[in-house]
Write a structure and sequence with these properties.
Layout: H1 2-10, H2 35-48, H3 57-70, H4 75-82, H5 87-93, H6 98-108
Helix pairs in contact: 4-5
């Protein structure tokens, strides 16, 4: 709701030349918010919300990537969304919690898959 309200207000702001593509503008300068300003806004809002962890704008990238991966998104899709050239860079962002790791092993490990028998036989190979 807040974003929708901002976008309505943003339509009334005439940005400086070259600043037209930015969503968030400084009302006073009519130009994009600096990295330091965004960092400060996130810090202030996290503190106001009672969040004790060290939060930064970059935290949102980590969280976004982690939630996508935990939801089953393909790592290559996440790589594209984050704009990474190398998949190894994307892998850094995708830290998995232990509960999810355990669930994935139980769900996908061959001995846990339904086989119609007692599971003692090795899977057939060609």
């Amino acid at each position: 709701m807040q974003l929708r309200r901002w976008l309505e207000q943003r339509a009334d702001i005439e940005p400086k030349p070259g600043e037209e593509d930015y969503v968030f503008l400084s009302l006073r300068r009519r130009s994009h918010l600096s990295t330091i300003t965004v960092f400060h806004i996130v810090k202030v809002l996290a503190e106001a919300a009672g969040i004790q962890k060290n939060i930064s704008p970059h935290t949102f990238r980590h969280t976004f990537a982690t939630h996508l991966l935990e939801g089953g998104a393909n790592l290559r899709v996440i790589q594209t969304l984050l704009g990474h050239e190398s998949i190894t860079t994307t892998e850094i962002y995708t830290h998995l919690d232990l509960n999810n790791l355990r669930r994935q092993v139980l769900e996908h490990f061959p001995r846990n898959l339904p086989s119609g028998d007692d599971g003692d036989e090795a899977p057939a190979t060609d």
